[in-house]
Design brief:
Helices cover 55% and strands 17% of the residues. It is an alpha+beta fold. α2 runs antiparallel to α3.
Amino acid sequence: MTNQSDAETKPNEVTDVAPETTALEAELGKARDEMLRALAEVENTRRRAERQVSEARAYAIDRFAGDLLPIADTLSRALAAAPQTAADEATRNLITGLELTERTMLEAFARNGLKRVGTKGETFNPNLHQAVAQAPSEHPAGTVIEVMQPGYVLGDRTLRAAMVLVSAGGAQSAGPTVDVTV
């Protein structure tokens, strides 16, 4: 008779183990899912940190460069106001020194990724230019015809937009005009 009682208890044990196994498998699946989510979060954090470090390297000088822009403007204005033909040697040397200083500063800007933007003949770009006026001219509408103050970009960021006069097209032209309001 003992054989009969052994046979009766074994099926009960198997049925008792099955719910425990199912619960453990569910718990394992949940733990695996949590682990995968944690790994994905770590990877996203690593990528975000790398992106922030590369942006910090690329744009670390933006405030310093912004502080130097008025100095570059002052040098340019000084050279524009200087007489083209200096009477004495001291004035010629001063002008040559100003030209050398401006050229050296612009070369330092270029080495650090800072570029001057805003030249006559460019097409108006609201991301790079600030239109201070619009005037009829022989140039096509939307063309920069005068630069009042050059702009500067660092990488893909505009540090200062160029202040420009934009062509409205010919005076008798009835073609479309470009809206350059900022």
